[in-house]
Amino acid sequence: MALYDLNVGEVITVLGTFSFAVSGAFAAMQKRLDVFGVLIIAFATSVGGGTLRDILIGDTPVFWLKNANYSLLILITGILAMIFWKKIKMLKITLFLFDSLGLGFFTVVGLQKGLAFDLSPGICVALGTVTGCFGGIVRDVLLNNIPLIFRKEIYATACIIGGLVYLLLRYLDLDEAIVKFTAVAVVFLIRIVAVKYQLSLPRIY
Amino acid sequence: MALYDLNVGEVITVLGTFSFAVSGAFAAMQKRLDVFGVLIIAFATSVGGGTLRDILIGDTPVFWLKNANYSLLILITGILAMIFWKKIKMLKITLFLFDSLGLGFFTVVGLQKGLAFDLSPGICVALGTVTGCFGGIVRDVLLNNIPLIFRKEIYATACIIGGLVYLLLRYLDLDEAIVKFTAVAVVFLIRIVAVKYQLSLPRIY
Amino acid sequence: MALYDLNVGEVITVLGTFSFAVSGAFAAMQKRLDVFGVLIIAFATSVGGGTLRDILIGDTPVFWLKNANYSLLILITGILAMIFWKKIKMLKITLFLFDSLGLGFFTVVGLQKGLAFDLSPGICVALGTVTGCFGGIVRDVLLNNIPLIFRKEIYATACIIGGLVYLLLRYLDLDEAIVKFTAVAVVFLIRIVAVKYQLSLPRIY
Q1: Which of A21, A94, A184, C179 has its Cβ near the most Cβ atoms within 10 Å?
Q2: What is the value of ipTM here, to two decimals?
């Protein structure tokens, strides 16, 4: 976190950590885990993508070992999620929205770290996609759900398109915050549209 | 293993490696895996937690690549477990006891490594918990069981309490061996009491 | 890839990447994943073993982050696999053959990297086995299949025997290409013979 942009990048990371913690906590409560199980799943979902990113790049100790604030943020988010659990209607939609937001934020987080490590643009898009998707995969595998990534709607494809938009806007030399939040919005909106209109990629069989 | 205390720390690591190898071998035999499958599961269970710990911290090559004795210990343990398999009564209880022992030993192993790398105390407790729990999670996922960590009784919570006891006793400047074995005993006893009296954490739903 | 032999070693890596990409793509099409899902599984199967090897050793960023050609090779292989999918008869056998070839290639890839990092010979065999087996485990776990490694026929054992043959031939100072391709052939042939004659290791229960 010291090597690259602290302001916008950090805000994106915090928002992504928060979003995935909420989605993990909600998914765990749907499966009726106990209080601690909810916090573990929130933690695993939230740090999963960034942990894989840091390990693949070799930037260790991984981010949440270096900065205890992430764990604290996830703990507080998990407790708040449990408190407000019964007051939220349309849980499925809430879970879906926070999963999609986290996907967008973490795609950008992965991309910016790849660029900070001077990896080639195509590889950065791949790294952003892996960073975005992995937290949700961990959550679904631990809860014994079929990973969202393999269900019908476009998922990883949203990360790839968002990543390409990021690279394009960055090339146009726009303001950093605009570039990053636009890329997040692209990932988020593609997910919303894909699920709403049940868009899916063709199959071969 | 050269960077921090060799004596007590190494004894704890060897005992944890042995305990988890036994628990992995027994769980694999319950699932009727072949001879080699039993050895693989014993290996994965035994090195899983420490491998994740080394990867997260960035202390690579990981411990079992640097020191072949761990693989040898697991091999011998696995073979002995297969030889004595039919002579042991109450297999479920034996498996549970060795899993709980391994949990205690590896929580301490993770903690002492975190402290050796100058991580903050709260993060060290998290690292100890991850180190303690991960081997059992790998074992259960590979064998297609529901991870013990998500069943009703207190599991990761035992690691956290044991980790806090470790930090407290260490702060009191007691003898190293007393501090470490007390922490192991705390994790072990919490597991025993939790399962015996079916203690569990509350759920939110 | 710069630290050790570029010629034979690189050819082996490319062939292994190709073989596992084919096996991953075919397994994904059998499960009726969409176009993108097929490419993801091909990617995960293909880079899985080498990624774990690089992470365990600490040679990061991992190989496919440093060299975009691997991702390109997997992309093209995946697309070709989808195009020729319907024209191939005996899909199960084709999948099995490419899985066995990939197993052989990656066992050698893991071994040569372990030797390049001066690990002890026994540890190199273990690293080769892990590198060879992990891609297939990832593929099977993501597709919710029982990992091939735990089914009846000899699997990881083939890697270990191939690894020992590699070390033996290398000790005899034969030509590098002969040593490596012989080891690949040994792994491949043990798999073929084991499945054809349904050889399996004994069980303890």
Answers
A1: A21
A2: 0.79
